[in-house]
Amino acid sequence: MGVIVQKFGGTSVADTERIRNVAKRVAKTYDAGHDVVVILSAMAGVTDQLISMASTICERPEKREMDVLLATGEQTTAALLAMTLISMKYPARSLMGFQAEVRTDCAFGNARILDIHADRIEVLLRQRNIVVIAGFQGHDCEGNITTLGRGGSDTSAVAIAAAIKADVCEIYTDVDGVYTTDPNICSKARKIKSIAYDEMLEMASLGAKVLQIRSVEFAKKYNVPIHVRSSFSQEEGTMVWSEEADMERLLVSGITCSKNDARIMVKGVPDQPGMAAKVLAPIAEAGIVVDMIIQSSPKNGTNDIAFTVPRTEYKAAMEIEQRVVEAIGAEGVYGDESIAKVSVVGIGMKSHSGVAAKMFSTLAAENINIRMISTSEIHISCVIVEKYAELAVRALHTAFGLDSDL
Amino acid sequence: MGVIVQKFGGTSVADTERIRNVAKRVAKTYDAGHDVVVILSAMAGVTDQLISMASTICERPEKREMDVLLATGEQTTAALLAMTLISMKYPARSLMGFQAEVRTDCAFGNARILDIHADRIEVLLRQRNIVVIAGFQGHDCEGNITTLGRGGSDTSAVAIAAAIKADVCEIYTDVDGVYTTDPNICSKARKIKSIAYDEMLEMASLGAKVLQIRSVEFAKKYNVPIHVRSSFSQEEGTMVWSEEADMERLLVSGITCSKNDARIMVKGVPDQPGMAAKVLAPIAEAGIVVDMIIQSSPKNGTNDIAFTVPRTEYKAAMEIEQRVVEAIGAEGVYGDESIAKVSVVGIGMKSHSGVAAKMFSTLAAENINIRMISTSEIHISCVIVEKYAELAVRALHTAFGLDSDL
């Protein structure tokens, strides 16, 4: 008999009929003798509706009040699930963020969890209650309502699982697990049975959308096993846990693809010390996050510096670099929004060479030019022209032996 | 410069456009130098929507969870008004029931306010904030969310006004004050400028709907002046305050009419001690509230006992009395759902005789039979046949000199 945290996303609680299905699943786990804590998101679409209502008041609603408004979404689903369970004769009780004592900093709209006093949750569990907690919300040290930002309910779930030392944190969603790549791009994508935190983090930051990065970071820090699975089937999903856990040993676990970046190249930068800082510091000062950076070898006393920024910041970054070019006497600045970043991710890469070579030759065989490359211990990313992205993903998926048998 | 509590009902905050109008009114009061605390209801219709959503889950949703669900309505409007004020450059801050420390008992769905720790409100006021509080909700000693029952926001407003020793509690609603009678029935109804708590209590319990009885009881207990006025005009409304306050001295302040009762008569009850108890005790045991009771003079060793019950309980009460009739050997039971209770209310009656006589003769002049009579120090009620109700109201309104000059 274990302690199990179950988190259900917005599509799983989209109406009272689906909430009834969630209740049945929760009840089944409870009947098996487990202690069950349920974390809920708002009904699908509700958070967006609230944001759009606030936007009729002003363009940028004050953040503290926005959090008070948004917190109603999860409050609603938590109350509805608890009353559904009670109508089925199960002892259930809802807790809001402040009642579950999810203490956060006061960064309204994007608060970070500081700690969770699990006393009340634990007392309720000892009395054999099913505890239903509104996800996405907490309270700061002054008792203000805070929210954790988009996808924050995953983080709530993992943090609460850590606080009560749960055996597993089950994340129910509308997909049935983490896939080797996006099944919409590659029909041969395969569900991954088991993946390490670090791999999952790379997958998430490189474009896989199934789990919020912050929740995986939290899970890694407190060693909470996550089970990502579908709320619409009984099938096992994907286990996300520490590297030491028993898992399939593949060289590469997955292929990701992101189209969220743009590339900027400053050409003809004088080959003098401090020039890279002069090119990049103004970007950082504007709060724009640079991902990849590449500097060419010097030629004729100058070199080229290329880097990627989020596509949403492309225009601002280009304007900054135009001013930089004038200031440092570079040749010019060139930008490209039509790029994609394709990555291979795998813990197995740590102890194997040849992954990069295989990636480059696979892309070459498809006549796809590589514009930029970045690597870490467990991933290699290549920037390519956007229109080749899907082809690249499929080719790499096959080359690294990830295709399913179907 | 005073401390002013302003409470706005559901129709006043029905959408973000109306919330903006509320914000302008609040801002005007603030600009005049007053400290302002605003109490809000949920948007018109929202509470009913939430109840109907819960009813798709089960017939009688568990009450604690129902309160969690319902509390989202006022949370939404409080956040929206605060962000509207902030967008207009006013320092505003929303507080939920638990943050404003509105402590109640744990009678979920119909909780009573025990006390309010006004420290946080007072600190915010001293910092010249506009404090926006979600009405209708509080928290019990275990930190559970509670709600105060229908119309509870009026009670929230008066209780908070008492706690912070406000100079006045303004109740903004969709009518512009308390009228001498229902203007829909009598076109000559006149707005009352000033009315005593006790009169208002009688008016409310006898059918006037403008203020919740509990809020008036609270106001009387803590001597909080209430100003009932329209949120759609700038006109003065009706002041509700203590008898000692300066007010118009009229014999009768208003005429009320209620069609919520039914009359039951048990005929031929043996004229023996204890028979009235045998007739009425089973009604009380069934939780049915009896309003008027009349026992006729004995004739031929029996008498008749008549009483009124809420019309919603009529059937249940009739079934009970049919069993009583058999048990005590009475002649039979007769019921009538088509009755109305017409009342005249006025503190002036305390020191004047002749009000009853005038009421009876006025009804007689219209050929209206009086079926039952009840009186208190400041009201006289007559039960009549329902179809004469409007005629009776108009005749009494004229007879007691309440007609407006229009």
UniProtKB/TrEMBL annotation, chains A, B:
GO biological processes: homoserine biosynthetic process; lysine biosynthetic process via diaminopimelate; threonine biosynthetic process
Recorded catalytic activity of this chain's protein: L-aspartate + ATP = 4-phospho-L-aspartate + ADP
Metabolic or biological pathway: Amino-acid biosynthesis; L-lysine biosynthesis via DAP pathway; (S)-tetrahydrodipicolinate from L-aspartate: step 1/4; Amino-acid biosynthesis; L-methionine biosynthesis via de novo pathway; L-homoserine from L-aspartate: step 1/3; Amino-acid biosynthesis; L-threonine biosynthesis; L-threonine from L-aspartate: step 1/5
Binding-site positions, ATP: K7, F8, G9, G10, T173, D174, Y179, K209, V210
Boundaries of every ACT domain copy: 264-338, 344-406
One Gene Ontology MF term: aspartate kinase activity
UniProt cross-references to InterPro entries, sorted A to Z: AceGlu_kinase-like_sf (IPR036393), ACT-like_dom_sf (IPR045865), ACT_Aspartokinase (IPR054352), ACT_dom (IPR002912), AKii-LysC-BS (IPR041740), Asp/Glu/Uridylate_kinase (IPR001048), Asp_kin_monofn (IPR005260), Asp_kinase (IPR001341)
Residues binding substrate, per UniProt: T47, E74
SUPFAM superfamilies in UniProt: ACT-like (SSF55021), Carbamate kinase-like (SSF53633)
Keyword Metal-binding assigned: no
Family, per entry: Belongs to the aspartokinase family.
Protein name as annotated: Aspartokinase
